[in-house]
Specification:
The protein is an all-alpha fold and 128 residues long. Helices cover 84% and strands 0% of the residues. It has 5 helices and no strands. Helix 2 runs antiparallel to helix 3, helix 3 (41-65) runs antiparallel to helix 4 and helix 3 (41-65) crosses helix 5 (107-127). The mean pLDDT is 86. The protein is elongated and about 55 Å long.
C-alpha cells in the first residue's frame, strides 16, 4: 500500500483533487456565511448542507480515483475511476435522501449551492 501513497504519477491528480476540494469547501463556507447574513439560519443551513452533499462524494471519488498509475496498470486506473464514479453517484443519492428526510431545509438555497459547488469544482482547473 505504501507504493500507492508515494506514486509520483498520481501526485498531480491528487494535488488537483485537493485544490478542488479546498475550493469547493471555501465556496460552501462563503455561500453559507453570506446566506446567513441576508436570509438567516435556515437558509444558511440549507446552503451548507447543499455544499456538503456535493463535497463529500467528491472526496470519496478522489480517494478511489488515484490509487493506480502507469502504463502497466491502465486497466486498474480505468476500473478505479469507474468504481469511484459509481460510489460518488450512489453516495450523492443517499445524501440527498438523508438530507430531505432528516433536515428542514429551503430547497432553493440547497440546490443553488449544490449546483454552484459542482460547477465550481469543474472550473477549478481553469482558475488554477
Amino acid at each position: 500500500m505504501s507504493h500507492i501513497k508515494n506514486n509520483k504519477l498520481t501526485a498531480t491528480g491528487k494535488n488537483l483533487s485537493k485544490q478542488q476540494l479546498l475550493f469547493s469547501a471555501l465556496m460552501t463556507f462563503f455561500c453559507s456565511v453570506i446566506t446567513y447574513f441576508f436570509w438567516g439560519y435556515t437558509f444558511a443551513k440549507s446552503s451548507l448542507l447543499g455544499g456538503l452533499v456535493a463535497i463529500i462524494p467528491q472526496f470519496v471519488f478522489a480517494l478511489n480515483a488515484f490509487k493506480y498509475a502507469g502504463a502497466t496498470k491502465a486497466q486498474q486506473v480505468v476500473d478505479a475511476f469507474n468504481k469511484g464514479e459509481k460510489i460518488k453517484l450512489f453516495l450523492t443519492a443517499i445524501l440527498f435522501a438523508l438530507t430531505f428526510k432528516f433536515f428542514i431545509i429551503v430547497p432553493v438555497a440547497f440546490f443553488i449551492v449544490f449546483c454552484l459547488v459542482v460547477f465550481t469544482s469543474l472550473l477549478t482547473p481553469v482558475f488554477l
